[in-house]
Amino acid sequence: MAKKYVYYFGDGKAEGTSNMKELLGGKGAGLAEMTNLGISVPPGFTITTEACVEYYKLGKKYPPGMWETALASLKRVERSMGMGFGDPERPLLVSVRSGARASMPGMMDTVLNVGLTLKTVEGLAAKTKNERFAQDSYRRFITMFGSIVMGVPREHFEAILNLKKEEMGVRHETQLDARALRDLVERFKSLVKEETGKGFPDDPNEQLKLAIDAVFSSWNGARAITYRRLNGIPDHWGTAINVVAMVFGNMGDTSGTGVAFTRDPNTGERKFFGECLMNAQGEDVVAGIRTPLPVTELGRTVPPAYKELEHTYKRLEKHYRDMLDLEFTIQEGKLYMLQTRVGKRTGISAVRIAVEMVKEGLITKREAVQRVGPDQLAQYLYPIFDTQSEAGSTPLGKGLPAGPGAAAGKIALTPDRAVEMKAAGQRVVLVRDETSPDDIHGMNAATGFVTARGGMTSHAAVVARQMGKVCVAGCEAVEVIDNQSVRIGSKVFREGDYLSVNGSTGNVYDGDIPVMESEIIQVVQGKLDAKQSQKYQLFSTILSWADSVRTMKVRANADVPDQAKIARGFGAEGIGLCRTEHMFFAEDRIPIMQKMILARTKEDREKYLEQLLPLQKQDFIGLYREMEGFPVTIRLLDPPLHEFLPKREELMVEIAQLELTGKDGVKLEEQRRLLARVEELHEFNPMLGLRGCRLGITMPEITRMQARAIIEAACELAKEGKKIVPEIMIPLVGMVAEMKSQKDLIREVAQETMKRYGVKLSYLVGTMIELPRAAVTAERIAEEAEFFSFGTNDLTQTTFGFSRDDAAKFIDHYRTVKIMDADPFATLDREGVGSLMKTAIAGGRKSRPGIKLGICGEHGGDPSSVEFCNQLGLDYVSCSPFRVAIARLAAAQAAIAEGDAKTTVKKAAPAQAKAAKVVKAVRRAKATQTAKAVKVTKASRRPSSTTRKKR
Ligand code: ADP
Ligand code: MG
Ligand code: MG
Q: Of all atoms in ligand 1, which is nearest to the CA of residue 106?
């Protein structure tokens, strides 16, 4: 049997259905479904995407039988309408509309009014007794056909139209009378003749054929190709074509056309939302020719049609169980539906629609969880600019949208000024070439920051996400002149001038655009009562549903109690990474830290460490308290020591000045000594230098002090009856011997400390996996390490050999030339880094079955990476406090996806299904194990049976 290339719809019955999108395209499937539902749709037929694919295979020829079936279907349309295509008495006109599987706006314009000829235009006028309408349709047809099919630039038609309006002294084309339009038709035809050398086709069948060819060809037009590249749509899909009997919105004041959404796509409110235009055709509404009216206006102008429209949209929404986007036309008071599809929406409305549809019984909670994109959820957290004010401002420059949200405030050009200005009660925007750990105090004081250099994972960007600040990074328009002035685009700003920053788009504006803070953050910080905020209710409802389906836990990366508190507010179930060095960067500690580093002898060093001990302990007590018994993973000191010391160049300048003035001899000596030490500590490549556990191994007294602070803090709380299970994490381990050396030290300190307090604690000692060597020798490392946490920032750096601070430049280029699809510092590289993770997991489980596994790199808050971690069977992901909610949702979606995958796998490949089952079983077993952490700890002190056998 010959392949079926054409599907008819009309008279309440269609050959297609809504689930034939692949074959009929989105538009065709929608038209078929509406027809089957008995909704008023003009009859027509769909030529399949397969026909398009064949057309190309055959060298731009119709596949056998396609044209004949199309003509036969056209006959059915004629019968249904009681009209004839090309019939001068009762002329049938059709539209020829493209429609791929995925919506591709702007790929090809629709041709309306196909079938108008010298004869039929007269017939149309006579039949409708409306000469003006007939000529209006004809001039529209020549414009569309002439530009889309015959390639005459649209502007030429528009120029002639504008000329005509001028001649007639009218503003709108609706004011042109029949004679004027008739004249326009003549001029348009001469234009086509001039431009193409061909006469305008006057045979309806030829018009139809040319229009079909044009739609097929548009699939490989430049616009379509670009669109597909940008949106990842495969070239081999092809487009379907819909040929639909015309209905007319341009027949007078009881006719019109419109587009609508079944709910508000911006807010999600359950109310009919849309626009319409009376006496208009096609896309006049969107084209902005006249200002459209709200769709509800139809209730006044054409009440019965509006009633039916209301009835129809409600019915369709119920049927599709989603918010829809509709296109319709009203011809002399009668409603026709022309398109329906699932409507695009903002994040704010996505959540509201999902939650309310569950309450209305339309969808399940699980479906609601699937319908909200993690990045859509994130929109609930961003402070935002007042929309109208922003629309009225022109950006001075654009950088990377590195910390979403909106901030406006006075410019500070140094961190110290930022702190002063904040203290004086001002909103501050910090503008820098780039930021470094020394700037933290200023960044903390600012509501937003802008840097001239750096990428999406630059220091500024990472800190912005962690602190929840607004950030535009790498804004090339920014040129810092000195400590008091900066040029941004065309304008020079002084410190204290107002600047507005949109971290969601990357735009930077002059002036003070009003900002609104997110309600969710206000609730989490205790500034707003949860009950007062509808947004918070929606946000927490969808997350509670997400929690009920996810299997992976979500923790936060938090260094200080304030961050921990916010993390809890967002539902974090523990701390996955506390970077202790951030505690040393605090203002009151950095001088002690510097003295410790400068100390020449171990004894001296211990003296200063002794001073740091109580401060660290207080930090840990604060963290433990906030986490209310949830696990807290504390990483020992990691960065290279020079980060705590002043910069070499700055010291040299200061010394030169002191030498010049010759006033302060003591200070000069001090600074010289400092410089000497800074130079001693100088490393050619600090990233690969003395850092991570190498620090604690060469200066064990640092590890000792930290271990003591961690255990003492836990003991003190244990005495209050609180159960704390610290997880002590050794950074940058590459060899099992490194792990063992640090672990032995910690055990020794812990034993002694617990004895001193008379407390028996359980605690774990584990490591970060952030070096390829650690991953490939994980089996050995797990003999010592009681947990693994994947430090995927460093693991990505060390796997690729990219420094993340320098890679932004060439990664962009790599993406443009298609060497890489994504930034591996933002989205986990499954192929390379992921493969090392798999190796590490397998090795770790081999020597320590049930080893606790987590991830604490920036990837822990990236939805695609979270999905991958779920597949790997990690116990938890840890991310910045402000990403916790997003990770909860992403983890739920990953669990649902995996659940679905498992059911299909079960039938196809039993072996894989078995593997999936094992992961599940391990996870279940571990849930119980965590509760019995004490046992695990005890057991791990002895070599496990597997490792004993191996030796
Ligand atoms: P797009 O894919 O760009 O939305 P469509 O094929 O939906 O293009 O056509 C655009 C508009 O043209 C429709 O919204 C509708 O207003 C008008 N239109 C298309 N077909 C017909 C028809 N048969 N009768 C009346 N108007 C039509
Ligand atoms: Mg449309
Ligand atoms: Mg690291």
A: 3
Query: Which pLDDT band holds residue 516 (cuts at 50, 70, 90)?
Result: confident
Q: How far apart are CA 516 and CA 500, in angstroms?
A: 13
pLDDT at 935: 35
Residue nearest to atom 8 of ligand 1 (CA): 110
> 112 C-alpha vs ligand 1 centroid, how far in Å?
7
Any atom of ligand 1 within 6 Å of the Cβ of 275: no
Are the C-beta atoms of 465 and 485 separated by less than 8 Å? Answer: no
Residues 6 or more apart in contact with residue 37 via CB below 8 angstroms: 315, 316, 319
Cα 649 to ligand 3 centroid, rounded to whole Å: 27
Integer angstrom CA distances of residue 890 from 336, 504, 630, 750: 41, 20, 21, 38
Q: Yes or no: say if 60 and 53 are a contact pair by the CB < 8 Å rule.
A: no
Q: Is the pLDDT of residue 904 over 90?
A: no
* Rounded distance from Cα 328 to ligand 1 centre (Å): 8
Q: Is the CB of 339 under 6 A from ligand 1?
A: yes
Catalytic annotation present for 52? no
Reported confidence tier of residue 813, pLDDT bands at 50, 70, 90? confident
Q: What share of the chain in percent tops pLDDT 70?
A: 93
pLDDT score, position 901: 54
What six digits make up the tokens of 130?
Answer: 């409306």
Amino acid identity, position 695: L
Q: Which atom of ligand 1 is nearest to the CA of 328?
A: 16
At which residue do the structure tokens 């800074």 appear?
678
Q: Give the model confidence (pLDDT) of 478-490 as tens digits.
A: 999 999 999 999 9
Task: Quick: pLDDT tens for 385-399.
Answer: 877 788 889 999 999
- Report pLDDT for 286: 59
Question: Phi then psi for 529, rounded to 5 degrees?
Answer: -75, 130
Catalytic annotation on 856? yes
User: What is the rounded distance in angstroms from the CA atom of residue 500 to the CA atom of residue 161?
Assistant: 43
Give me 573's structure tokens.
């179930």
- For the chain, how long is the longest CA-to-CA vector? 108
Retrieve residue 930's tokens: 């965590």
Residue 104 has pLDDT above 80, yes or no: no
What average pLDDT does this structure show over 57-85? Answer: 97
SS3 content of the chain, % helix, strand, coil (to 5): 55, 15, 30
What string of H, E and C letters represents the secondary structure of 299-318? HHHCHHHHHHHHHHHHHHHH
How many CB atoms neighbour CB 629 within 10 A?
A: 13
Give yes or no for residue 386 CB within 6 A of ligand 1.
no
Q: What is the mean pLDDT of the chain?
A: 90
- C-beta 250 within 6 A of ligand 1: no
SS3 633: strand
Which residues are CB-neighbours of 624 under 8 A, at least 6 positions away?
Answer: 632, 713, 714, 717, 722, 724, 726
Given the residues 276, 471, 578, 856, the one annotated as active site: 856
Q: Per the structure block, which two tokens stand in for 563?
A: 């961050």
